[in-house]
Amino acid sequence: MVMETLQIRLTRGLVEEIQKLVDKDVYPSTSEAVRDAVRRMVIGSGELPKPIEKTVEKIQKEVKFQLLGARGTRDFLPEQQIVREQITSVLRETFELYGYSPLDTPLIERSDVLTSKYAGGAEILKEMFSLQDQGKRSLGLRYDLTVPLARVIGMNPQLKMPFKRYQIGKVFRDGPISLGRYRQFVQCDVDVVGCSAMSADAEIVALVNAAFSKLGFKIDIRINNRKILNGIVASAGIAADKMDGVILSIDKLEKFGVDAVKKELAGKGIAQDAIDTLLDTLVIEGSNDDKLGKLKKSLGENEGITEIEEVLSLVDAMGASCTFDPSLARGLSYYTGTIYETFLKDSKITSAVCSGGRYDEIIGQFIGKESVAAVGISFGLDRIYDAFLERDEVVQKTVTSVFVIPIGTALESMQFCERLRKEGIKADIDLLGRGISKNLKFANSMGIPSVVFLGQQELKEGKVKIRDMKSGEEKMVAMDAVVEVLKK
Amino acid sequence: MVMETLQIRLTRGLVEEIQKLVDKDVYPSTSEAVRDAVRRMVIGSGELPKPIEKTVEKIQKEVKFQLLGARGTRDFLPEQQIVREQITSVLRETFELYGYSPLDTPLIERSDVLTSKYAGGAEILKEMFSLQDQGKRSLGLRYDLTVPLARVIGMNPQLKMPFKRYQIGKVFRDGPISLGRYRQFVQCDVDVVGCSAMSADAEIVALVNAAFSKLGFKIDIRINNRKILNGIVASAGIAADKMDGVILSIDKLEKFGVDAVKKELAGKGIAQDAIDTLLDTLVIEGSNDDKLGKLKKSLGENEGITEIEEVLSLVDAMGASCTFDPSLARGLSYYTGTIYETFLKDSKITSAVCSGGRYDEIIGQFIGKESVAAVGISFGLDRIYDAFLERDEVVQKTVTSVFVIPIGTALESMQFCERLRKEGIKADIDLLGRGISKNLKFANSMGIPSVVFLGQQELKEGKVKIRDMKSGEEKMVAMDAVVEVLKK
Questions:
Q1: Residues 81..100 of A with a Cβ closer than 8 Å to B: which?
Q2: Beta bridge partners of B172
Q3: Which residue of A has its CA nearest to B213?
Q4: How far apart are CA B305 and CA A12, in angstroms?
Q5: Structure confidence at residue A44 (pLDDT)
Q6: Which residues of chain A make contact with B385, given a CB cutoff of 8 A?
Q7: Mutate to test the interface with A, among B64, B98, B111, B358 (most CBs of A within 10 A)
Q8: Nearest chain B Cα distance for residue A56, angstroms
Q9: Which residues of B touch A161 (CB under 8 A)?
Q10: Closest Cα to residue B286, out of B327, B320, B231, B324?
Q11: A80-118, pLDDT tens digit by residue?
């Protein structure tokens, strides 16, 4: 049985009402009261004394609305969406600084495109949402942004190479739900198509460094090359037909540790001495140079090592950094060279926040051409967002920076508010004709930094009163000077 | 039979190859050659001489890729998406200046939410894309952003009123396709929930004025009030149960003219003198005040007139403008007060680019509460985008503002390019190791405004050569001064 944690939000008044029942020992806790109300809603159970029944009914009503969203999806209220847009705007800005231009493709694709032999692989296809249009055409919701990119390359032979694009978009997977796994999530992809030179692979490392530095996160970019991994597996004496299975096991090193992986490999029929050689070569310590030195000795001539050395020297020239990790595997079998995974330092988010690699065969096979070189990386907005929330930063419930409170000056206040907007100030105004204290309470609860009062007396004098909502400080300011004061 | 116009893009080389066949009178035109190739692909037909067959096969291959997108959807390549993001960024900025904060909701919703009695209406539901998750739950793709807003209000009783949100998002309708009608399109909505005062209705007019002024379009915002329309229909002696049908006919005035509407109304069983009275009252000329004066005489006391007078006076105070048009109807039956439609002046786009109104009943009925006041407007990105394309502005194929061409200085050039990016310059660099003339050709074809050359000699002198791609002018600039020169 798959368990699921639901976040239920109740109005404060109702929570207080439930608390009273807890105080009277009717329920051991507020959450038990909610659980009881839901149980009664689903399976029913006996009558309740009137006052308790009334509260339970209220809980049921509020809970019912909490369940109206499709399973595995989330709404982002302004206080959440403001943060998410800050993150995507930093990513967008960084992508553009590195010469990537925006692309947009539809959320629905033809099934035959999404399920084509060289697309996402069997695992992903099991989780594809399928639908039909009225003409009974088979369609699906996209599960990544790479297949649409391959389609766009195929459909647009006029595109100049290298084609550097970014795409920030929602993707869908109809899989099991757990903490941090949703059915709709956002990928932010950058890819270079049509460039087999390692300059592209290095540029992506510099871009990832720049993006997270702007976002204020310390990161560790791990890098490896599939040709090195293949070389290591082969040099351990493991047959080529076991390669993919072995790499899938190596991918579990980080999560489950050396012993578990050894056991799994033995289960796949790999000889004990091959397993030992393999892991001794994979799990090595030291600087990038140290590790490369050791590997050169055990592997000899290897194209992957040459490539990674080139990437590392370019990354270094660009003042960026990454960690060479020969045990980095990445599950997907379509990678052909460089692979990346990026982890946050000092965060509870231990999964990779940004991963990718070089896939020189996919696009070509997809569009029926010779190989088309491509390398790219995908930033997971939802994980980066979760990491953002760990910081104890002030929550903004609105983008508004000043709230105008008219005191008997409805028309003039709207006029004044409009002036502020024309000057680029994000200004809001009381639309409901509320009193001063209600308006102040509203501005405070929304976290708006400044309030402007405009009464008849102020109007006559061509002034307004500005209140700093944090310090409580108030001052009279000439109308013409308000913009200047607010922009400080 | 529904016809469809497909845009087929072919590579230049192939077009030249086809042209040769046209020159030899094999085909009357290039497009006839393409049609023949498609016909042969679909229904086959006889053999062709070898050289012609080869070209036809090439056409078939390129055409095949053109058909890979789902029907009724479009890709936006960088040169298109750059423009679309310019538009949405102006809209977003304007919405925030007016105190609206961003909201994001999932693209998939539960069917029972989308089909609830008070949602989009039968017409829209016919065009809803349906799907299921693995738990066999019935889901649909959202067809607007209003139903999700109502759901969010229901699920979040803690939200402070008025709740001012904007949402820019894709919506889906599985309907017939024609020029300008797609199955996936973008709506940009602003709504004020929880405010019945006309200040909200007026603010929206000011916001629409500001948005289009920033976008560089002259517009005409038409405004009316459903209570006026109802009053006019009633005062013409038409029974209340015919109201909705009559309003649907009035909605066609703009498109089909007075005579057609009269005919349709007669067909709906409305008496001839009622029709004449109705149209005489609806179709009136003059200033807003003139029209209101005339209507007051024929209607007497009317809540809609009071409301629109208040809106107009506030709009005027805010320095914005709109045209009162008592014949404006808007099809949807859920509007309860103010209605808006915005048209572009001096554009071939004659349909409304931005419409909406007040709907005080929907949200309340949807969430099972007393009425919840709400007013909003929706900008149609796709139409605004089409209007943008009418202007003969320079097409940018990339966001890049400078392209660095290394001449034997791969490493140092990447280093230099990275410096530019750190300074906020959108810089790209040759990743392929191409020669100078190929690089210049590439930068030119992408419309990149400046190119920087960095050779060994320049490197020694700490300088680079900058070329203005438009004028062809070149000058040597110290590396430290490049940012300054480029930012000019």
A1: 81-82, 84-85, 96-100
A2: B184
A3: A422
A4: 40
A5: 64
A6: none
A7: B98
A8: 17
A9: 432
A10: B324
A11: 999 999 999 999 999 999 999 999 999 999 998 898 865
Report the pLDDT value the prediction gives residue B3, as an integer from 0 to 100: 41
The chain A residue lying nearest B404, using CA atoms, is A99
Using a CB–CB cutoff of 8 Å, tell me whether B319 touches chain A: yes
For testing contact with chain A, the best of B97, B118, B156 (most A CBs within 10 A): B97
Residue A65 has a pLDDT of 60
Q: What is the ipTM of this complex?
A: 0.87
At B306 the pLDDT is: 97
Residue B228 in this model has a pLDDT that exceeds 60: yes
Shortest Cα distance, chain A CAs vs residue B353, angstroms? 21
Closest of B186, B193, B190 to residue B207, by C-alpha: B190
Which residue does chain B place closest to A213, by CA atoms?
B422
Nearby residues of A138 by Cβ (< 8 Å), 6 or more positions away: A110, A111, A112, A130, A132
Task: Over range B227-231, report the average pLDDT.
Answer: 94
For residues A268-286, average pLDDT: 91
pLDDT at B368 over 50: yes
pLDDT grade, residue A154 (50/70/90)? confident
Which of 18-77 (B) contact A at CB < 8 A?
61-62, 65-66, 68-77
| pLDDT class of B244 with cuts at 50, 70, 90 | confident
Q: Map out the domains of chain B with their CATH numbers.
A: 3-66 (no CATH), 78-391 (3.30.930.10), 402-487 (3.40.50.800)
